[in-house]
Write a structure and sequence with these properties.
This protein has two domains: 179 residues, BT2081, beta-jelly-roll domain (Jelly Rolls), CATH 2.60.120.890; 82 residues, Macroglobulin (MG2) domain (Immunoglobulin-like), CATH 2.60.40.1930. The chain is 7% helix and 54% strand. The protein has two helices and 23 strands. Strands 3, 8, 11, 13, 14, 16 and 17 form a seven-stranded antiparallel β-sheet that branches. A five-stranded antiparallel β-sheet has the order 4-5-18-12-15, with no helix packed on it.
Amino acid sequence: MKKLTLALFALILFATTSMAQIPNNGFENWTNMGTYNNPDQWGTMNNLSALGSIFTAEKGTPGSPGSSYLKLTSKTTPLGVLNGIAVSGKLDTINMKPISGFAYNQRPQNFTGKWQHMIFGSSQGAMTATLTKWNPGTSSRDTVAIADRILSGMVMSWATFTTPFVYHSGEFPDSCIIFLRASGPTPTNLDYLYVDDLSFTGTVAGIEHNASSANEISIFPNPAKDKIILDLNIVSSSPTIIHLTDMNGKVVVSKNAGILYGSTQQILNISGLSAGNYLVKVIYDNKELTQKVIIQ
């Protein structure tokens, strides 16, 4: 009985440990690089920006919880505004894309943690966790699941975020890359994303499209004047049309967004339209998302 109890305890300990495997997930461990600190086991743009004494990834205190957290801030450099980026592994500071992640072999349901974020322009940042598995037949990596979240609006104090994984395969992954960005494709000086206490929760047994990741549309600013930005989350890969209609159903702006899947950001030019109430309609896969927007 004692051996069985010890074996059961070891199994529970292994299962618990395997779900707490994001390296330096609370950003408690940092390495002094001389003129700046880098979070251990995370790649940042500091390796490049430090040449100009500019640091887009910094240690914030206190954490939530713990003693520290990661502060990502887009900052102005002589070459333009540099996006605040961090990758759980290695980052190519030239093309600002992940090179590698960390070993991981579970099938979680959600990517979660604590955050604060804000932008000063119109290009929102994002958070993406991608599970992959090496395919020896094609000598490439197959995507098992993605938890993708474009930031929306602002969060000015610590709050919990939860982003579900969308699974494309019943396979178990062998690696994971977490990619954090303070800004979108067009960063603005001082856009920021603060993160802490990252983790994976739950377990998915097969190919499962979490219902909470479907049928999502967020519009900002609202009310709007010159343009509106749509944060969409489309779980079925299909051609997508976006219509802006007046309250009588007349289409006043139309955009063919192409084939969309997962989180994406779309922009509609509304300059010249009369002030009033309108409807944004996103049509895809024989479905329609509708949300009201006010034009000033």
